[in-house]
Amino acid sequence: MGLGECRFDFEKKIILVTGGSGLVGQAIKQAKQQDPRENETFIFLSSKDGDLKDPAATQRIFERYKPTHVIHLAAMVGGLFNNMKHNLDFLRNNILINDNVLHNSYKLGVKKVVSCLSTCVFPDKTTYQIDETMIHNGPPHPSNFGYSYAKRLIDVQNHAYHQQHGCHFTAVIPTNVFGAYDNFNLEDGHVIPGLIHKAYIAKKEGKPLVVYGSGKPLRQFIYSIDLAKLFLFVLREYEEIDPIILSVDESSEVSIGEVAQIIADAFQLEHGIVLDSTKADGQFKKTASNNKLRTYLPDFQFMPLKDAIERTVQWFNLNYNIARK
Predict the structure, then answer these.
(1) I need a surface site. Which of 28, 68, 95, 235 has the fewest CB within 10 A?
(2) For residue 133, how many other CB atoms are within 10 A of its CB?
């Protein structure tokens, strides 16, 4: 049976994963092997498969694979400094990518699209806990407003496609994701991969791990494999158009200092950590509510942070030469 014929067997799912070679895509590869379904065929795209900013290239990809479902992870991403300098580029390029993916999904009759947003979609000035109803309540943080508005527009498009065409397009909003295949760049990487790379260097040089700021700000971190399992739940079972926050419980919120200590212990750093309080802290907290997730999955077990960080450190040590850095 060819790919095109699969579309007439309603049990068969051809799941196209855009941005499939990154942190979350690689985790979904692993999670679907742990919980396989006979009727699911996954196709993981990378940038080598075509430029999703280009309507014709995107159409060719969709016509080639004829997906019944799409997990949309692809985006133009960058660290804080890059975002601040290029807000227009982040806005335009992400709007193009998202519009091409969603419109081709509509044109080819894709049954369900799950797109990935980010907690940066939430207003800069907000009350806590943040929940799914607050996305459009005020402007995002000015540092990366281009990226944030492009991501917000996915939610707008999802509702518009549903209202006008009955499409089942939805989105998830993960908190701070980390794990194997992350971006461990010292300038552009996020907190955990950046600290892991710094600790790797500190270990080699016999120095302590220097942590910028007071170490007091609180964050919710989610291991990429846990996030991938939740992505599969959303793909298979979540029926709402409104987005859903994928996050650990508020009780699992942890300080940057505690995270740094776990990383230092994982590397067995003789000189521990040193806090450089001359550096700025950023926002003290960004607590997101996972109440909606817990109504669906009250018993979902997240991997303990210490175990997840140790696994990520082990992966980085084994894969230092190929890791993004």
Answers:
(1) 95
(2) 11
CATH number of the domain within which 288 lies: 3.40.50.720
Asked whether residue 273 is domain-assigned, the answer is yes
Asked if residue 93 belongs to a domain, the reply is yes
**Hey, how many other C-beta atoms are within 10 angstroms of the C-beta on 22?**
22
Does some domain include residue 5? Answer: no
Question: To 10 degrees, what angle do helices 191-205 and 256-266 make?
Answer: 40
CA 131: distance to chain centroid? 17
Domains contained in the chain, number: 1
Q: How confident is the model at residue 308 (pLDDT cuts 50, 70, 90)?
A: very high
Among the options 65, 106, 128, 147, which is catalytic? 147
Query: For this structure, is 238 an active site residue?
Result: no
Residue with the two structure tokens 């400094």: 81
pLDDT in tens, 109-121: 999 999 999 998 9
pTM over 0.85: yes
Residue 191 clears pLDDT 70, i.e. is over it: yes
